[in-house]
Structures are given as structure tokens and as C-alpha cells.
Amino acid sequence: MAALALSNVKHNTFYGVKDALADSHITGDVYLAGRHYEVSGSTVQGPIAPLSPILEHEALKVMYALTLAKRTPVFGLAGVNPDSLDAATAKLEAAQKDLIGLQKDAGNAKLVRSLYPIVFLRAISAAERARLDFISSASDSDAARYNAALKNAAREGVIAADSFNKAFAAAIGSATFRIGSASGTLTGKGMLSSIAVISERMKESSAEIDEREACMDGKALCRTNLSLPDAPEIPVFLNPAAATTLAREVLAVFQAAIPPAEGENRVIALSSSVCVSALDAPYFFSQLAPVHAASVPFRYVGNILFLRTSNANQPLMQYMKNTLGITYNISNPFVYYMCPEVGDDLARLLNVQAIAQFAYMHPDIAIKKRSALAKDEIYESDAQAYLRDALAEARSGETSLPPEASAELYALALAQYEKGTGLDIVIKGIAETLTKDIEDSRRGVPFPFLTDMKILFTTQSPFPSLFLAHNPSFGTSQITLHESNAAEQVGYFRTFLRYSDLKSEIPRELFVHDIREHAIFEGASL
After folding, report:
1. In terms of DSSP H, where are the helices of 217-361?
2. What is the per-residue DSSP string for 400-454?
3. Residue 522 burial (CB count, 10 A)
4. What is the pLDDT of residues 340-391, one digit of tens each?
5. What's the DSSP call for residue 51?
6. Prediction pTM value
């Protein structure tokens, strides 16, 4: 049973709906057939007194469902705009159709149809829209629509995961491979086991939805904690001066090549990372503009890696050297085809950014922790420490917040727990990159991977991000996509040149030129 783990509960405590609401001191308004009812813990007041047991239970049931939707939803996407998600999914569907059209083999075209879970992405967008509508209306009719949307999302998730699983097996066959990256070694075995776990996660979510429904219908005991998840404890780096200096230096080079986002000169430091875990912590990122097709709106600005094009035999590297005049081609580890789990890191960066913005807009909340978020270097540990204090103040009543600010604060807490923020950005980046690659291939740029099923389903497949494998509201089982192998990592990084090693050998202008040309190649308008 998945409910306990999905809800971030530490102890098994069983409730009925009435007891659960009373225990968590839940109060608020709900609407049954358009009529207003006030719920305060286990008691209900309505337009007619006394209430019948049926009406009382219905009001409690809607309040319980409403609390779950606000605090511990299944398929939760707090921080994601459903309209943006739908628009990005439409772009991905169009790009997928273009990719299908490139395939000369009918079997390959069929496989590509399973590459991206378009119907599932639409279904979770519909579920998130229904969640927001339900939170806004608190009505029994929207509660029913939301529950139906969740069931549909679970159903489509199982179908999409199983379809991708079968297509992957058909595309890869018995091939074994080990591919190095800045996040570890990608292996066939690891991908197969991770895809199987994705299928299991979808089934866990479906079971969770059924279990919650049974609880609210009085057919099973409820065991979901109604408490909002708290901000996690993040390790603090005590002496990051050298790393900060390097990040500032790298950012200055980037900004000379790619203009920064308007008014943006901050770097955000993650304490851990999926995409660059094999590099040294803390992991610094910064936002650059314009956002080009191949990139999410952040760049890794630590000890960046380059590949000398004269030493590479791949046709694409030769194109970079001979046609674009690039001597040192930058490796961007923060894109979906280098890091299939890019959605994990991106969500955390966006959440830190959102927490810092909330702190800026509310100077009277968590004053002791707020100042750390006004600096040019924002640490994830400081953002979460601020969020913990802000939530504690709000819960205790120490700080009087208007309803809109309270709702925003609680949404931030849910977003940092779920890590779904930025899903629309990931999808849009995949779609725009794929569209551009197809256009470039038609004008002669060597992109053989577009018709190579093994590549499309391995290094070009961001399935962990598209199925939100990092989001605990999408299932409880954990995937382990990459392996840690020290010897392989040494071999992988031997291929690349680090900025810290190159900067004393080549002029800064060459860095700027090569980064700029690479950005233009990826689609930047500079």
C-alpha cells in the first residue's frame, strides 16, 4: 500500500475521515450542491440544522479530499501552470510526428510513437487543472471531477510506461552498453530496471488513489497524514570560497558570450545534484538569456568541461570545427540528452528561486533567515532554512499573513517536496531541440541519431523527467538510472578539458567565441 510513503508520514496512524480532520484541526468551507457548509475538525454546520448523517459525512468527505488536494496530492504538480504544460506537450507531439516522418522503417516509426508519453502528459495536466479548480471552489462537483481526472492520469500512466517499456526492449534488444556522463554511468541494465520501476510507480499511484477513495467512502480506514510536508534539512557548506570564486569567473565568461537574464547576476548553489554529481560540490548554476532551444533556463557554472574538436572523430565535432570554427566545444551537462533526470535539478533550482522571491516580497517573515536570500550567491540550504522558519511562523500564528500569502507559502512547501516545477520547461526544451535538430539534419548537419533507435531510446530519452521519477507524489519506488564507477569516471573525464586547466593556456576571448558559437548553433538569437 502506497499511501503512507506518498504522504511523507513517519508513523503508521490509522484514522477515519472524521478523526483525521479533528486530529489535524482542519477548518474551512465546502459546498454541496451549491450550499455552504462550515467544517471545523469533526463538526459540520450547514444551512439546515440538524444535519443528516449523510450530509455531514459528505461535507467531511469533501473537506478531507480538499485537504489532500492542498497538502498531499497524488500526481501533484504544484508550481506548474497547466496551460504552459499543455502548450509544451503540443509542441512535443508535433516534434514527435516530425520524427516519425523521418523514419524509413515502419517498425522504427511505430517505436517512436512510444518514445514520449503525450497522452499521459495531457492527463496529468488535466488532473492539476482539476486540483486547482477544486481548491478554488471547494465543491462536491469539482471534487468528483478531480477524482475522475486522477484516475484517468493513473490509467494513462500505466499504459504509457508499459508502452515505453516494450518499445525500449524492441529498440535495444540484447545490446549492452555503458555510457559515461557527469552524473555517472548509464547502462542498459540500469535503464531496463528503471523503466520497470516507472511502470511500478504508476501502479502505486493508482493504488493510492483507490485507497483514498475507499477511505473517504467509509470502506477502509484512512492512513494519510494531513500535515503539509516540511522543508528538508540541506547540508551547509562551511567554506565554499574557492568554488564561489570559480563560479563567478565562469559566469563572467558565459555572460560575455550569452547575455544574462534581465537584472540577473545571481548564482544558485545546490548541495547535491543529479546532473553533475560526479563533479565537485557545491553545484553552482545561473540563469542566462535568451533561453535557447537545447537548454533549460540555467547553466552549470562550476568547473565547466570542453572537448577539443581537433581530437574528436565524430562527424558532429568535425562540423563544429570546420563549419562553425569552434576549437573547444563546451559540454553542457544540464540538458535532457546529457542528463535524463534533468527535471530533478531544475525543479530544485526553480524552487530556490521562488522561495527567494517570496522572501523579497514579504520582509516581515522569517527575518533571521531572510538576509541570506538577498545575496548574489543563494544556497539551497539557506532557502530551505528560510522556508522552515516561515512555515513555523505561519503555523504558530506568530506572523499574520493575508490568505493569498499563506496559500503561496504552502504552495512553495508542496512544490519543494514534489519537485514537479519546471516540467513544462523540460518538455518545451525537448520539443524545440528535436524540431531544430530535424531542421538542421535536412540542411546537412550530421545528426544520425534521429533515425537510430538505440540512441533515441538511450541518450536521447529523458523518460525519468517525463514520468517524474523524482516526484514522490507519482509513486514510492525509487529508480537508480546511473551507476557510480570511479575508474569509469576517471576515463570519462579524461576525454574532457576543465576550465580551471585551460584558462591559463588559452585567451578568454577564445572561450567567449566558442561558447557563443555553440549557443547560436543550439538556437540562441545573439
Report:
1. 241-257, 315-322, 342-361
2. ---HHHHHHHHHHHHHHHH--TTHHHHHHHHHHHHHHHHHHHHTT---GGGG-HH
3. 17
4. 999 999 999 999 999 999 999 999 999 999 999 999 999 999 999 999 999 9
5. P
6. 0.91
